[in-house]
């Protein structure tokens, strides 16, 4: 298996003693880079510290829609200050309309702020979207797509939605194989574990490869190269 790139993980969710073991397993499996996405202010410093200590960890800082309601006032200014001082992307942020306890307008406002931040600082953005494709497309129509790129992580939509998002310029990252894989262009495809075990990325490549009539080795190499292109603005 060639070197692999995990486009979305959450190493910060591990206990302190578990990070080194997880990274050792990732290296042993061939995962040489991994994008570690914060989900709220409580883990921004942790993600930055992981990246500072481990060059294979690519940091992203954002406010996940699940955490919007609990965000302290001024979070956007503090996020901008951290991003301005560090080589990091924006995310995980987005919309989740399956969570009915979260006001939709509050989620849209938080995402709008983070989209504008990605544009101002020239950073790639990792996006969470559940049952909100129409609102997401409407927001991009108003704000535009950040030039450094947007990836929709753990994509679980239809092939039609996949094509529509790519037409907007978005990238699609998969945490599990599925039929929509066949609707993704080669230069827009990424793979991710979406958890705290990046070592699982080669197994995902092996499971996804048959959907694309590729070998696992070929798909792992393709998505590694794509990851290096997508995250180029923040790679060490």
UniProtKB/TrEMBL annotation:
InterPro entries named in the record: Metal_Hydrolase, TatD-like
Family annotation (CDD domains): TatD_DNAse
Domain of life where this protein originates: Bacteria
PANTHER family xref list: OS04G0577500 PROTEIN (PTHR47176:SF1), OSJNBA0020J04.13 PROTEIN (PTHR47176)
Protein's name according to its UniProt entry: Deoxyribonuclease
Organism of this sequence: Geothrix rubra
């Amino acid at each position: 298996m060639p070197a692999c790139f995990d486009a979305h993980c959450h190493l910060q969710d591990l206990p302190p003693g578990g990070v080194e073991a997880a990274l050792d397993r990732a290296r042993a499996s061939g995962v040489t880079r991994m994008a570690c996405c914060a989900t709220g202010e409580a883990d921004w410093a942790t993600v930055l510290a992981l990246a500072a200590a481990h060059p294979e960890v690519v940091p992203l800082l954002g406010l996940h829609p699940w955490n919007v309601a609990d965000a302290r006032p001024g979070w956007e200014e503090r996020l901008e200050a951290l991003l301005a001082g560090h080589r990091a992307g924006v995310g995980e942020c987005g919309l989740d309309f399956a969570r009915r306890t979260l006001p939709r307008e509050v989620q849209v406002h938080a995402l709008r702020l983070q989209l504008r931040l990605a544009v101002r600082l020239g950073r790639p953005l990792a996006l969470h979207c559940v049952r909100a494709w129409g609102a997401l497309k409407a927001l991009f129509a108003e704000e535009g797509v950040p030039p450094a790129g947007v990836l929709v992580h753990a994509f679980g939509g239809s092939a039609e939605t996949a094509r529509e998002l790519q037409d907007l310029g978005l990238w699609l990252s998969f945490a599990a194989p599925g039929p929509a894989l066949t609707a993704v262009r080669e230069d827009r495809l990424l793979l991710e574990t979406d958890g705290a075990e990046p070592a699982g990325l080669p197994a995902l490549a092996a499971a996804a490869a048959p959907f694309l009539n590729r070998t696992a080795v070929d798909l792992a190499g393709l998505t590694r190269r794509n990851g290096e292109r997508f995250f180029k603005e923040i790679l060490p």
